[in-house]
Specification:
The chain is of the alpha/beta class and 334 residues long. It contains 16 helices and 8 strands. The protein has an 8-stranded parallel β-barrel, surrounded by 8 helices. The termini are far apart.
Length: 334
């Protein structure tokens, strides 16, 4: 199977009860995907738009809004984890992630408590707790890893975030006894949002578009690979294409790097499988990447400012999605 041949993993960026009970296993059996991810926006789409949850929500009416969300989300994650468990036991990924309440992104203590609680509640070894790469998040990552919990460090936009994430992982590694197996970690590097934000400006400056996300992700991938930190890999996230200017599988095909993971929506995965070409890629060299960002700098484009804006927007979007999902008291009573 081609994914095995190029040592590349493809995870499904989608969670919904009907999908899990009917089609998810088929994708695994066909060796299309070997893992999955979730986030507050995905759960919002599932819980508020799929009728399968309505009866369950009514049975949980005496719980708080967040408790209802957690009951439903943890059940879905548990179902996914059970389906993926054979892959996990074979050492072929088999992970599913659930994100800590994004409203806690700046509260290390509360995030650590929630991460431990969710992991214990789901009680599956192939679950990853998703932690945003914030100042507080690095402390959370270190503590969860020291407690044997797999971690997905998410919302990584900048090389600096990747550097601080790797430092947190190394600190945890130094604290854990060598005879204890170190948990698995992925660094979720967001890709397409750069191009959606920057392409119009680049077009005005006569700079080729739809490259910034690829070059930035490649730079961070090179950092992670060269760091050679145990049980740590790059996961390329936000790889769906918006609009018709790019082929649907563009970001997957451009980032077919060894030892990497790509998580993508179902339509993007389907487009990739229907593509006539999925050849492994040689990672872009740092010299070419640096040259590209030098061009942007010379054109007055401040990447540090863009990194900060994208991170702020990413966190805020997940907070909004989470709030909209838990505020379904009216929805659950229908």
């Amino acid at each position: 199977m081609f994914l095995e041949d190029i040592k590349f993993s493809l995870w499904c960026d989608f969670i919904e009860r009907n999908f899990l009970l009917n089609d998810f296993q088929k994708l695994i059996d066909k060796k299309v995907v070997n893992g999955a991810t979730s986030n507050p926006a995905i759960f919002k789409e599932a819980i508020l738009n799929s009728p399968i949850y309505k009866d369950e929500i009514k049975k949980l009416i005496n719980l708080s809004e967040k408790e209802i969300y957690e009951e439903i989300a943890c059940k879905d994650i548990s179902i996914a984890a059970s389906i993926l468990e054979p892959l996990y036991k074979q050492g072929d990924d088999g992970f599913i992630s659930i994100e800590i309440d994004p409203r806690l992104c700046d509260d290390a203590k509360e995030s650590i408590e929630e991460g431990k609680r969710l992991y214990k509640k789901i009680d599956k070894k192939n679950v990853m707790i998703k932690v945003p790469a914030t100042d507080a998040g690095y402390e959370v990552v270190e503590e969860l890893l020291c407690n044997g919990i797999n971690v997905n460090i998410t919302l990584i936009f900048s090389p600096e975030q990747a550097k601080l994430s790797l430092q947190a992982i190394k600190k945890a590694q130094q604290k854990i006894a060598k005879e204890i197996e170190f948990p698995q970690v992925v660094l979720s590097v967001f890709v397409s949002r750069f191009d959606r934000k920057m392409d119009e400006k680049l077009l005005e400056k006569n700079i080729k578009t739809s490259l910034t996300g690829i070059y930035n992700a490649s730079k961070i991938y090179n950092m992670i690979e060269s760091a050679n930190v145990i049980n740590t890999r790059t996961l390329f996230a936000s790889t769906g294409v918006k609009g018709n200017t790019l082929e649907p599988a563009y970001y997957i095909k451009e980032l077919l790097y060894p030892n990497s993971i790509n998580t993508a929506p179902l339509k993007t995965i389907e487009a990739f499988l229907n593509s006539d070409q999925f050849l492994p890629k040689e990672p872009l060299p740092n010299s070419l990447i640096d040259e590209y960002f030098k061009v942007l700098e010379n054109q007055g484009i401040e990447m540090d400012k863009i990194y900060a804006e994208l991170m702020t927007q990413g966190v805020e979007a997940f907070k909004i999605a989470f709030n909209e999902t838990i505020k379904f008291q009216k929805h659950k009573q229908k």
